[in-house]
Specification:
Blueprint: H1 2-67, H2 70-83, E1 87-93, E2 99-104, E3 112-121, E4 124-134, H3 141-171, H4 176-193, E5 197-201, E6 207-210, H5 212-218, H6 238-251, E7 253-260, E8 265-276, E9 279-288, H7 290-318, E10 323-328, E11 333-336, H8 338-344, H9 348-351, H10 368-374, E12 376-384, E13 390-402, E14 405-414, H11 416-434, E15 438-443, E16 448-451, H12 453-459, H13 463-466, H14 481-494, E17 496-504, E18 510-521, E19 527-536, H15 538-552, H16 562-579, E20 582-590, H17 593-600, H18 602-617, E21 625-628, E22 633-641, H19 645-658, E23 661-663, E24 666-668, E25 672-679, H20 686-702, E26 707-710, H21 713-735, E27 738-747, E28 753-764, E29 768-770, H22 772-782, H23 785-807, E30 813-816, H24 819-823, H25 827-838, E31 845-850, H26 851-856, H27 858-871, E32 874-880, H28 887-890, E33 897-900, H29 902-905, H30 912-928, E34 931-934, H31 940-949, E35 953-954, H32 965-974
Helix pairs in contact: 1-2, 1-3, 17-18, 21-22, 23-25
Length: 980
């Protein structure tokens, strides 16, 4: 038994020694592994911390860089560098390469971490940040002495094992149970006394163990073994905890931050899966992070408040009325606000790090010495704008401390507006001194403060004589007290007054002036000054009188002109209306005065007008007015008429004009036509009387000239009818009221139709049928005959063309041409264009021209007739026998036909003279190869007599009256002879 016990003790002792040795080796190996794991974990933690620092620093720098607040950015980096001694180096570089901040400190080369990152927002690069940090981890005691400690422990273990073996061998003891108990006590002490809350759960979520720290954190008392973890959380938080437990089962570990609503605490839970033997457990490490989260919230609030304060500061800085620039002592730009950037047209990125001489002249650097001596300096200069222009500025610089060093803060004020105001004030002062108008300035009490040179020139007072005086010294006495009372009343109510006033000069002379007075008030509305401007009207008044005389008199004869005549006529009518007396207007027109101008020249014509004007003055009374209205027309206004006094004056005027006129050895004889209109019978106002007198004068000319004619209602009726016809005739062509009627021309031998004459007819919608004798004179006088004549030509050619297109036969149409139409420039070209546009042969168109048209100006008529004849157009001499055409002239005209006027056809079968004229015309036409056409044949006996004399063609009501187009074309296409 003793041997067995000894053997057991010896074996157990050996086993125990081996176990102890293995345990020691395990502890040593575990220590080495833990040390290595701690080093690896420390390295990973340091790296994560370094990355977190980078992200945090980048986030903190993003806002100030985005706003361009480089002062805040530098301050932030400086605080970061100074607070952490392990920071080896920090550098912040602007996008353009300018170094905004750089700081370094010596550190060991080992354990040094470096990072370079870009700070950007929305793809826009704001800066580049470089960081270098030292780990600061000096190898621990274990790292330095691990080999020695391990060797010593190994030796001690061997000795201790040997001694244990000896004790066990001697006393036969079993130390295993006591060691286990002690270890259990140690682990229990660690669990119970741990400051970190620990909860061990079963896989079903029931609490198996919980240390006091966890109980305190969860607010529990006593043994909570078997308590379900779900009971510790509210329904809103439990889903998060349940998801955490599920993640631990799947992944082995998980972490989640939840809120203990019952305790109002924020708890961070780190869960891991444990295995004790064959049993699975879940360990929860709980950490109360409530205070940390509150601190973080307070820190975030402080950061937001700081950001708002910085933004307010930046906004004040950027929106300052003056430009603000911060430069270092080398003149390099560090900061600038938006006002300055707008002033020079650059962006902040373009100016960062640039020297001050980029924007201003180098001579401005001379003021730097004043800045160093006085601490401040002020001067004016110019800064160069981006576009090359120079901006005048006022510069104020002061020394300031910035980031631990001295810098120069400069306020730059744009003084362009001030310079412009100064220039305007200088200009106004110059204008005031050199103004032609007098300027007088008083204070609010009326004491004269200043005057200009023009005032002294106009009034005769020097500046020294009037300073301190009252403007009353200029009063002339021409205005009563009520005038000045009204002036001051308007000046007080409206702040200004202007008008004409009479002043008295120093010499005692009264003179007219145009005065303008204005009250000047300050910003509070308090009256400060009165400013008076006055212009001397002496020359203007004299010029006005001269102009009035020129405006109311004829410059050639010195008589009243139309303006003065109308004014005096209006006044005479008012007096006549009150006194019930008569007034007469005599319109006097010289007969054939144009011939004097054309033959003797306008100089002689002017002499004639002057002499006639003098004669007419002698014919009137002093109270009457004689006026020259136009070239050779005069008017006489006679007031207070009695009986036939107007007739006597008219006779006197005619006799005065008839008297021979001696000019430059020439004796001239003149006559006049006078029209008389009387008030109130012939007009109630000046316009009516003048117009009616003019109409009566034209009537006197029509009656043979050298006479006078009283206005009658018949004149007015004809004038009104003339105006009405002209007004409606202007719209007749567009309204389609004009028509062409065609009277056939026939062969007297067989009655065959050989052509037609186009005759104009007008059926007005308002006036009805208007006869040609009423229409043609109006068209001639108004000029409407030109478009009407062109329309007649175009319409006739259109008819010829349409007839040819329908029948294949050409038709000859004769068209009458007026004198005005024939004499219009381009008449031949107009005929040519109409023929070309209508595609009508020229021979189908015949133009009828009267004797008076050809004889009016033979020299001009013959070339035009030859052009028309060369064009191929047939020419006919119309109304032959009624004018003054001689056979000598007739043979010179290139005409194809001669039309005998109806006056010789009417009695040709009874009058030998008419028959003789017709026979002689037939003989002449036969010799000259003219064709003869007789007009106005209405009886068969006339037809027979003309045929016997030798006329080949004729037209008249005997054959056909003028027909509308449709009836005429039907007659032509019928092809029947027109002799019954």
């Amino acid at each position: 038994m003793s041997r067995l016990r000894t053997k057991f003790s010896t074996g157990y002792g050996r086993t125990l020694a081996v176990v102890l040795l293995l345990l020691l080796l395990f502890v040593l190996l575990q220590s080495l592994l833990i040390q290595r794991a701690r080093q690896l974990g420390l390295q990973k933690t340091l790296q994560q911390s370094f990355v977190s620092e980078q992200n945090l620093l980048r986030a903190q720098l993003r806002d100030p860089l985005l706003r361009g607040d480089y002062v805040q950015a530098r301050a932030l980096l400086e605080g970061y560098f100074e607070q952490d001694a392990l920071i080896a180096g920090v550098a912040l570089q602007a996008p353009n390469g300018f170094m905004l901040y750089q700081a370094e400190r010596p550190q060991p080369s080992t354990g040094l971490r470096q990072a370079q990152l870009e700070i950007a927002v929305a793809g826009e690069l704001l800066g580049r940040l470089q960081l270098r940090r030292s780990d600061g981890q000096v190898p621990g005691w274990w790292g330095r002495h691990s080999l020695k400690v391990t060797s010593g422990l190994l030796l001690l273990t061997l000795v201790f094992g040997f001694l244990v073996w000896r004790v066990v061998r001697r006393y036969g003891l079993d130390p295993l149970s006591s060691a286990v108990a002690r270890e259990q006590q140690a682990y229990a002490a660690l669990f119970e006394q741990s400051r970190e809350a620990i909860v061990v759960l079963s896989p079903q979520g029931e609490v198996e163990r919980m240390n006091p720290a966890a109980a305190r954190l969860l607010g529990l008392a006593g043994d909570q073994t078997g308590l379900a973890i779900r009971e510790l959380h509210s329904t809103t938080v439990w889903p998060q905890v349940e998801a955490l437990l599920a993640a631990v089962v799947r992944q082995g570990q998980a972490a989640q931050e939840v809120c203990l609503t019952t305790r109002r605490r924020q708890v961070e839970i780190r869960a891991s899966r444990l295995k004790f033997g064959d049993d699975d457990h879940i360990q929860l490490l709980l950490q109360d992070v409530t205070e940390r989260r509150q601190a973080e919230a307070e820190l975030e609030a402080l950061r937001l408040e700081l950001r708002r304060n910085l933004e307010s500061y930046q906004e004040l800085f950027d929106h300052s009325a003056d430009g603000l620039v911060l430069r270092d002592f080398n003149g390099l730009l560090l900061m600038a606000n938006q006002t300055y950037l707008r002033m020079v047209g650059y962006s902040l990125e373009e100016l960062l790090g640039t020297h001050c001489t980029l924007l201003c002249q180098r001579s401005n650097c001379n003021h730097f010495s004043d800045l160093l001596h006085n601490g401040v300096t002020r001067f004016e200069c110019a800064h160069r704008h981006r576009d090359g222009s120079w901006v005048p500025v006022e510069v104020r610089s002061a020394l300031v401390h910035f980031q631990g060093s001295q810098a120069v803060l400069t306020s730059v004020r744009d003084i362009r507006e001030r310079r412009e105001r100064e220039a305007r004030l200088q200009l106004l002062s110059l204008v005031m001194e050199n103004s032609s108008e007098g300027v007088l300035v008083t204070d609010s009490s009326g004491s004269i403060q200043a005057v200009n040179q023009a005032f002294s020139r106009i009034s005769g007072y020097s500046e020294a004589e009037v300073l301190g005086q009252n403007p009353r010294l200029l009063q002339s006495g021409s205005h009563g007290p009520e005038f000045y009372q009204q002036l001051w009343q308007q000046l007080r109510q409206q702040g200004s007054w202007q008008g004409e006033i009479w002043n008295r000069a120093k010499s005692g002379e009264n003179f007219p002036a145009w005065l303008q007075i204005r009250a000047l008030c300050d910003e509070q509305g308090t009256l400060r000054h009165y400013v008076a401007l006055f212009a001397d009207l002496r020359e203007a008044k004299a010029w006005e009188e001269k102009m009035l005389k020129l405006a109311q008199t004829d410059p050639l004869t010195g008589m009243a002109n139309r303006v003065l005549l109308r004014d005096r006529l209006q006044q005479a009518l008012k007096r006549a209306s009150r006194k019930q007396v008569g007034v007469a207007v005599l319109a006097v027109g010289l007969d054939h005065f144009k011939k004097i101008n054309d033959s003797l020249g306008h100089a002689v014509g002017d002499q004639v007008l002057v002499e006639i004007g003098q004669r007419l003055r002698d014919c009137v009374r002093a109270e009457d007015t004689f006026s020259r209205l136009s070239g050779d027309e005069f008017a006489l206004l006679v007031c207070g008429l009695r009986n036939d006094e107007a007739t006597q004056i008219a006779i006197k005027v005619l006799e005065a004009v008839r008297a021979p006129l001696q000019l430059d050895g020439m004796e001239l004889f003149l006559s006049a036509s006078i029209g008389i209109a009387c008030y109130p019978d012939d007009g109630a106002d000046d316009s009516a009387l003048l117009e009616n007198a003019d109409r009566a004068m034209h009537q006197a000319k029509l009656q043979g000239r050298d006479r006078f004619c009283f206005f009658s209602s018949d004149f007015a009726r004809r004038a009104s009818e003339h105006f009405s016809i002209e007004r409606h005739l202007r719209r007749a062509i567009e309204a389609g009221e004009l028509q062409l009627y065609y009277q056939p021309q026939v062969s007297l031998a067989d009655g065959r139709l050989v052509g037609a004459e186009a005759l104009l007819r007008w059926q007005s919608a308002e006036l009805g049928w208007v006869t040609p004798d009423r229409m043609i004179p109006v068209a001639e006088s108004s000029g409407l005959i030109l478009p009407i004549g062109q329309w007649v030509l175009a319409t006739s050619c259109d008819l010829i063309r349409r007839h040819q297109a329908a029948t294949g036969d050409w038709l000859r149409i004769a068209v009458n041409v007026s004198v005005r139409q024939f004499q219009t420039a381009g008449f031949v070209e107009t005929v040519r264009q109409i023929l070309q546009q209508s595609e009508v042969p020229p021979a189908c168109l015949e133009l009828e021209l009267t004797e008076s048209l050809m004889m009016n100006d033979v020299a001009q008529a013959i070339p035009l007739l030859e052009e028309l004849h060369a064009l191929g157009v047939a020419l006919a001499l119309d109304d032959f026998g009624t004018g003054y055409t001689s056979l000598a002239y007739l043979k010179r005209f290139p005409v194809d036909r001669v039309k005998l006027d109806r006056a010789f056809v009417t009695d040709i079968h009874r009058s030998r003279s008419d028959a003789a004229l017709a026979q002689s015309l037939v003989a002449f036409a036969s010799a000259m190869e003219f064709e003869l056409v007789a007009e106005g044949i209405e009886e068969a006996v006339q037809h027979e007599r003309l045929r016997q004399i030798g006329f080949a063609y004729g037209q008249g009501y005997l054959f056909a009256k003028p027909l509308p187009e449709a009836e005429f074309l039907a007659l032509v296409r019928a092809g029947q002879p027109l002799i019954h």
